[in-house]
Specification:
Layout: H1 11-24, E1 30-34, H2 41-54, E2 59-62, E3 80-83, H3 91-102, E4 106-111, H4 114-121, H5 123-128, E5 129-134, H6 140-150, E6 155-156, H7 158-167, H8 172-186, E7 193-194, H9 196-210
């Protein structure tokens, strides 16, 4: 069996993972991980969970569903509970997570900007927050590195790389999506070259699909 590929994190994701791991080491506290959609919050949670497991700590990862515990069965309790898409959590779910926190679990809540609003609405949860981590969008150099790692056959000149960075708003998931579609286009070309105009044309095709 082929071993799984190691998680490839951008420098911004690595920094966020280090901060979240630090927060997760504090039993009875909550750590927040925020960032826009596609910036890599799920990837960071996976990396943190893997690191905690190597250190012998039990983890539970889940997503909030109205009225249910996102970490699944409450017994036995995990050392660290990591909740993705926590900005979708309803009040009862957050209350349950606060209960876990009070019973000694470290809790990590990852989500988009609305998560901060949800936390601010409940002073009990806000008081339990020990650390806040934010994943920033990629720099131009980081976007170029993602493009190089993602591309299978397409060749991108500097203007094409810069256009991907701009159109994707420096969000890793959006960058990868554009590159994957560019690979399909490049396969029909002898030189496999992708230009800035090609990237813009691919984006125009994506826009109706996204709508």
């Amino acid at each position: 069996m082929t071993p799984p590929r190691p998680l490839e994190l951008t420098p911004a994701q690595q920094a966020a993972a280090a901060k979240v791991a630090c927060g997760a080491s504090r039993a009875g506290t909550i750590t927040l991980l925020c960032g826009p959609r596609g910036v890599g919050k799920s990837l960071v949670l996976e990396a943190v969970a893997a690191g905690l497991a190597r250190g012998g700590r039990s983890t539970a990862i889940g997503r909030p569903t109205a009225g249910t515990d996102p970490a699944g069965d409450r017994s036995p309790r995990a050392d660290v509970v990591l909740v993705d898409d926590a900005h979708l959590a309803a009040g009862p779910v957050l209350a349950d997570l606060l209960d876990r926190c009070r019973c000694g679990s470290a809790v990590v809540l990852a989500g988009q900007g609305r998560l901060l609003t949800l936390v601010a609405r409940d002073s009990r949860i806000e008081e339990a927050v020990a650390l806040r981590a934010v994943i920033r969008p990629c720099t131009a150099a980081e976007s170029a590195a993602i493009i190089r790692r993602t591309a299978r056959s397409a060749r991108f000149d500097d203007p094409a790389t810069a256009t991907i960075h701009e159109i994707a708003a420096a969000i890793p998931a959006a960058i990868r999506r554009l590159v994957e579609l560019a690979d399909v286009v490049a396969e029909s070309r002898a030189g496999r070259q992708i230009t800035a105009a090609d990237v813009e044309a691919i984006h125009r095709r994506l826009s109706p699909l996204a709508a």
